[in-house]
Amino acid sequence: MILEMKVPSPGESITEVEIASWLVEDGDYVEKDQAIAEVDSDKATLELPAEESGIITLKAEEGDAVDVGAVVCLIDMSAAKEAGAKKKETTKNEVSVSEEKPVQKEEPAETYATGAASPAAKKILSEKNIDPKSVKGTGKDGRITKQDALDAKPSMGEALNDENRKSERKKLSMLRRKVAERLVSVKNETAMLTTFNEVDMQPIFDLRKKYKEEFKGKHEVSLGFMSFFTLAVVRALKMFPDVNSMIDGDYKVSYDFADISIAVSGPKGLMVPVIRNAENLSFKGVESEVKRLAIRARDGQITVDEMTGGTFTITNGGVFGSMLSTPILNPPQSAILGMHNIVERPVAIEGKVEIRPIMFVALSYDHRIIDGKESVGFLVAVKEALENPVEILMNGDEKKALEL
After folding, report:
1. Percent over 70 (pLDDT), the chain
2. Which of 82, 102, 124 is where one domain is finished?
3. Could you tell me the pLDDT band of residue 29, with boundaries at 50, 70 and 90?
4. Where would you tag: which of 13, 63, 167, 247 has the fewest CB atoms within 10 A of its CB?
5. What is the pLDDT of residues 94-114, one digit of tens each?
6. Is 367 one of the catalytic residues?
7. Packing angle between helix 283-298 and helix 225-239, nearest 10 degrees?
8. Preceding amide of 332 cis, omega within 30
């Protein structure tokens, strides 16, 4: 029995995906639930698992855009597992051992054994003015795939064939293309401005030093900076609700809840999962959720739903060493807070110069909906909470706030 495997819907409003990579080869035997491909949507990269066990026949090439519901492969469920074992094929440069003939001398590297080009590959090669005979195909029977054609480069002469002069042409993933499109639209369609401030992190350093071991021992999660920033942001959003609003045509949409998007680095690049109802979370709750989402992003398990619907974003460029930056809005949100690295700097404290751990913070915002007064007031409120965490964020009882 032949099973037609179709592209499942990764989420609402997504009608097309791209085959990022096949994790199996045509003719392989696959087990049920085995990951057979990675597919890109405009929001995430997801694995496609085999629906049944059997011999697989691929019906789409890497780089192909396919509609949700389209057939991308066939699985012969009646085939035995042994039938899928790959046999070493004899090429024109090699003969089987059973024939007991000497192996022929290899041809020069520039002579390729290649098959025909696929229609898509032929079109690309024609546009690039490249002879298909000069391209080594990686598809079945030496077939030149679309990706082979995209990777192919025209001859630039011997002078440019130096080993030290290499370049690579690789198609951007659908996710990266969508991100690029959205970032350009943010610059073109919003009135984005950024306001800056600095935070003395010494009070938070002191709290973490005093309680980090006890906190981790009881809650099995570290007491990081993200919980302080998230709770400081939640408080500031209540004080300045315009920052927790969005533009929808001629209307302003405001929210009485805080779904905080947090930028985390994953194997496929930057991802922005959402901490839902952060206004209801404690320090333990925020840190646990940050850890859970970061692990899912790292392991490639994050879902589209987990990255959709945030009302405000926090991004931490400081983990990569950034001193100061202008974070770009995460549409359709109207504001984003950028954290940066912490550096010991001389500052004036009650008329005396002291060395304190200082972090620069930046708030980028859409000036169409947020005025300068609100943006500056919001960032000052965040600064005040971070510099007085026991009084403002913990109601004067640090042990109770940390659930110790």
Report:
1. 87
2. 82
3. very high
4. 167
5. 333 334 444 444 443 333 445
6. yes
7. 110
8. yes
Distance CA 54, CA 76 (A): 5
Model confidence pLDDT, tens digit, residues 271-326: 889 999 999 999 999 999 999 998 888 877 788 788 888 999 999 988 888 899 99
Residue 155 pLDDT > 70, yes or no? no
Is residue 196 assigned to a domain?
yes
**Cα–Cα distance, 140 to 270 (Å, whole number):** 34
> Which helix (H) or strand (E) element contains residue 365?
strand 352-366
Q: Is residue 166 part of a domain?
A: no
Name the active-site residue from 26, 33, 141, 371: 371
Mean pLDDT (whole number) for 227-244: 96
In whole angstroms, give the CA distance from residue 27 to residue 74.
10
Within-domain flag for 200: yes
pTM for this predicted structure: 0.67
Strand partners, 262: 314
* Structural domain containing residue 50: 2-82
Higher pLDDT, 145 or 221: 221
Residue 231: both structure tokens together: 């709770």
Cα 37 from Cα 7, distance rounded (Å): 11
Helix (H) or strand (E) holding 206: helix 202-219
The sign of the dihedral angle between the CA atoms of 350, 352, 356, 362 is positive
Question: How does residue 183 score in pLDDT terms, banded at 50, 70 and 90?
Answer: confident
Number of domains in the chain: 2
The answer to whether 189 touches 247, Cβ cutoff 8 Å, is no
Which residue among 64, 206, 367, 397 is the active-site one? 367
From the centroid of its chain, how far is CA 404? 35
Residues 55, 59, 60: CA angle, nearest 5 degrees? 130
Is residue 161, in this structure, part of any structural domain at all?
no
Last residue of a domain, one of 54, 82, 110: 82
